[in-house]
Amino acid sequence: MVNLAGEVLKKELVDRIFADSSVEQVCNLYGPSETTTYSSWISMPRAEGFIPSIGRPISNTQFYILDAYRQCVPIGVTGEIYIGGAGVARGYLNRPELTAERFVPDPSTLIRMRVYTGPGT
Length: 121
Hints:
The structure is a single chain. The radius of gyration is 16 Å and the shape is elongated. By secondary structure, it is an alpha+beta fold. The model has no long low-confidence stretch (mean pLDDT 88). It is built from two helices and eight strands.
């Protein structure tokens, strides 16, 4: 098994790993630094090859796809990924404005939790 994280996983890399090794499974691990090392994963067995997906959230992690008004969008509608759960950082050290911009209240709960949204939202 090979775990890959850090950049967008490209089909060519997965194809090359399977072609040049005896690896039976490649895992794509997705997540920004603000949510620990990774927040989701998907396994790609050799028999199936590359799967263009970031997979499912890991335990104690939630993904939301929200519109510009931070409302959930229907399946198939484009939106921004918001990540919530135990792995979300508290914010940026000595950067309260950026923390307030990127770490927003969790839309699914009334308790005080935050979700992370990346740049451009």
